[in-house]
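Technical annex, item 7. During the second reporting period the consortium partners agreed on a shared format for inverse folding records so that results from different sites could be compared directly. Each record opens with the tokenized structure and is followed by the designed sequence. A conforming record, contributed by the partner at site C, is shown below for reference.
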């Protein structure tokens, strides 16, 4: 009797253990180790003082799906170069095809502390970019480790374990040695973060038709010029989307003020708290990072939740869709405080869309040094 009870117990124990192991299966997925890397013998010039081997390593990590728990998703899955590093999905899909809660963001012109040699492309401040739609992070080296560990995005449970697994992949020890010369064991979460960050800060967008216009005063069509006038003057879109300065999404250092965030009246009762999540200040509820409109023609769908498919739909929002919400930006209110309707005539909308299309940087999206080295 006793023996029977014992073996029943043992059976139960065995079942429990095997189920636990099955659940754990994902985290023990073996990383494939074959090499398919295609790197130039002399590294590309990334223009940062720390050297070119650091961003080269970052590029490889950025496109390596082995950073995700089941080797299925890389940073590049949700940040595609051809789309200014966005992904054409309202809410991005993670390693198990579950949806994230927000729209993937373009990666360009990020300013980060601890990197020298890459000046702000618009000659602005050296304040670090506030990252994510809610600005909850401004340390890029720490930030890049978040999607790797995010349970929906890439699902890696243990970064130290990941570092060990990466060390066992033949390409990496040499890449890390070159990127961090003369140091001991260099494959750690910290160096993975630093290399990824170095790659990200090197992604600069300054090659659009609009940039040519800024430098030479020429190159825009009549319609684009007309749209530019409407954008900067008549509708004052530039009061938020400052195309020539680095204000967009920047935290104002020291002052405690949270700059570059705004509620544009998408919903009367915002369901996503937005910047409130970073500041815990009720006055920040419903405020989101003012996105850069560089490459905006490529970054559809639009807004933090990807609710609009086209730039025309965005125009409709500003024209007659702004809702009265608690923290609606004063620039989008009438004198009596209600939501402003800009009633933008179709011709004006078309001209502004033409202008927004001139912000596409065809050099950046084709530049080999930002492309997938596994192809
Ligand atoms: C599953 C899709 C997905 C993957 C994989 C992913 N991201 Fe993202 N990324 C997003 C989404 C969605 C956001 C916006 C999240 C938010 O605001 O909460 C974002 C935001 C960012 C931002 C902020 C940009 C800004 O201007 O604020 C950076 C930088 C970034 N990701 C880099 C990376 C890196 C590096 C990796 C790989 C380690 C990565 N991402 C992997 C979807 C993804
Ligand atoms: C009061 C500040 C403010 C003004 C003025 C403003 N915007 Fe915006 N705009 C924002 C914010 C904030 C977002 C992102 C909102 C979100 O996702 O919740 C945004 C989003 C957008 C987007 C989508 C970008 C993307 O990547 O998803 C476009 C396009 C755009 N605005 C164009 C315009 C145009 C054109 C005007 C002038 C008619 C304008 N904006 C005026 C703050 C502003």
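Designed sequence (site C submission):
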């Amino acid at each position: 009797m006793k023996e029977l009870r014992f073996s029943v117990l043992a059976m139960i124990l065995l079942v429990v253990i095997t189920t636990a192991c099955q659940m754990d299966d994902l985290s023990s997925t073996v990383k494939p180790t074959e090499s398919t890397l295609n790197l130039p013998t002399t590294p590309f010039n990334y223009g940062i003082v720390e050297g070119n081997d650091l961003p080269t390593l970052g590029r490889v990590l950025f496109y390596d799906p082995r950073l995700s728990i089941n080797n299925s998703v890389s940073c590049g899955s949700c940040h595609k170069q051809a789309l200014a590093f966005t992904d054409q999905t309202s809410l991005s899909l993670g390693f198990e095809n579950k949806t994230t809660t927000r729209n993937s963001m373009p990666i360009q012109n990020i300013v980060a502390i601890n990197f020298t040699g890459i000046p702000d492309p618009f000659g602005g401040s050296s304040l670090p970019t506030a990252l994510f739609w809610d600005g909850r992070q401004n340390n890029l080296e720490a930030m890049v480790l978040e999607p790797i560990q995010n349970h929906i995005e890439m699902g890696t449970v243990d970064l130290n374990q990941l570092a060990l697994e990466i060390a066992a992949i033949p390409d990496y020890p040499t890449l890390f040695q070159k990127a961090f010369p003369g140091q001991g064991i260099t494959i750690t979460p910290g160096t993975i973060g630093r290399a990824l960050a170095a790659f990200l800060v090197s992604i600069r967008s300054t090659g659009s038709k609009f940039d040519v216009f800024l430098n030479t005063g020429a190159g825009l069509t009549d319609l684009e010029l007309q749209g530019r006038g409407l954008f900067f003057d008549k509708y004052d879109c530039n009061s938020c989307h400052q195309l020539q300065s680095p204000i967009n999404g920047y935290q104002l250092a020291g002052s405690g003020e949270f700059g570059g965030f705004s509620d544009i009246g998408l919903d009367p009762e915002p369901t996503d708290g937005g910047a409130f999540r970073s500041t815990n200040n009720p006055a920040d509820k419903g405020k989101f990072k003012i996105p850069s409109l560089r490459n905006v023609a490529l970054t559809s769908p639009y807004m933090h939740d990807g609710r609009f498919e086209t730039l025309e739909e965005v125009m409709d929002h500003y024209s007659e869709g702004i809702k009265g919400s608690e923290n609606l930006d004063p620039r989008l209110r009438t004198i009596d405080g209600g939501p402003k309707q800009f009633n933008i005539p179709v011709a004006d909308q078309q001209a502004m869309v033409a202008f927004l299309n001139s912000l596409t940087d065809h050099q950046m999206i084709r530049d080999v040094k930002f492309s997938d080295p596994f192809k």
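The radius of gyration is 24 Å. Residues 62, 73, 75, 77-79, 92, 94, 100, 102, 104-105, 107, 129, 131-134, 144, 147-148, 153-154, 196, 200 surround heme C (ligand 1) (CB under 6 Å). All partners now use this format for quarterly exchanges.
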